[in-house]
Each structure stands twice: as C-alpha cells, then as structure tokens.
Write a structure and sequence with these properties.
This protein is mainly alpha-helical and 159 residues long. The protein is 72% helix and 8% strand. Strand 1 and strand 2 form a beta hairpin.
C-alpha cells in the first residue's frame, strides 16, 4: 500500500512539475521493467543452482548407470549394488546425490526401499531423454541391463 501511494505521489509530482505525461509514463515503465528484470534474475539464479545440482549428479558413471537401470522399473539398493559391483553404502550415497538433484525419488515397499525416476521434474525430462538416447548402444549399459534381469532381491538382500 505504501509503495502504491509513493508511486502515485511521484507520478503526480512529475506530472504537475513538468506537465509531461510521456516522461511520467516512461519513468514508470522503466521501474516496472527493472523490477521484472530483478525478479527474473532471482528466478534464473535459482534455476541455475538446480541445473548445477543436476549436472553434478550426472558427473559420475555409476550414477548414469543407475539412472539407466531405473528407467526400466523401480529398483532397491541391493539390486543396484549387485549390477554395479560396488558396496551398498556407496550405492546409497549415489542415490542420495541423485535424489538431492531431483532426478529420483524413493518409496518404502515392505522390507525394501524402491527408487524410481521422477519424469516431470524441472530440467530432468529433457536430460533423461538425452541420456536414454545416448546410452542406448553403450556396451556397459547393455551388460548392466542384462545383469539386472538376473537380480533377485529376495536372494540378494539380507533380512
């Protein structure tokens, strides 16, 4: 309310003093454009931070392999560890980074926690499409997808 009054008083002051409605209109338009530019800058900084998180999460071959395996269906940590050939705590750290980047989510399924891709997050849809296309013919990814078919969570996970 105070800003609106101040703007109105400023507009009336310049209008009365100079008798030039054009100057007042231009001055007001400049202020509006500057406010919009500031708001857009703040928004883009936030978006850039989100992109930074996503690209940092994608900067590891194991995380890319995990994303590729999660494209087919939900998986638990033990299945991913079996295919990647690394320890479960390492897989959990990779999953945490992917989750913090907004690329995956998790849900409790009885004894297991299943991880899955988030298809509709901010920048991940285009990125996931690109990953799907570029990793389709990779020999390591093909081996992973064959090995994941053999993974049986009842046999892999300890109870």
């Amino acid at each position: 309310m105070a800003k609106a009054k101040r703007t109105l008083i400023t507009v009336l002051f310049f209008d009365h003093r100079l008798g030039d409605a054009q100057y007042v209109r231009r001055n007001t338009e400049k202020r509006i454009v500057l406010r919009l530019a500031n708001a857009l800058t703040i928004y883009l900084r936030g978006f850039m931070k989100e992109l930074e998180k996503i690209f940092k999460a994608l900067a590891d071959i194991n995380r890319l392999r995990i994303l590729k395996m999660l494209q087919a269906q939900k998986r638990c940590v033990c299945e991913l560890a079996f295919v990647l050939g690394i320890a479960q705590p390492s897989v959990s750290r990779h999953l945490k980074k992917l989750k913090n980047a907004g690329l995956i989510a998790s849900e409790k399924n009885g004894f297991w926690t299943d991880y899955y891709l988030i298809e509709n997050s901010k920048g991940s849809k285009a990125i996931m499409k690109y990953i799907k296309q570029t990793t389709e013919y990779d020999s390591l990814v093909k081996k992973d997808l064959e090995k994941i078919k053999k993974a049986n969570r009842q046999k892999l996970c300890c109870k």
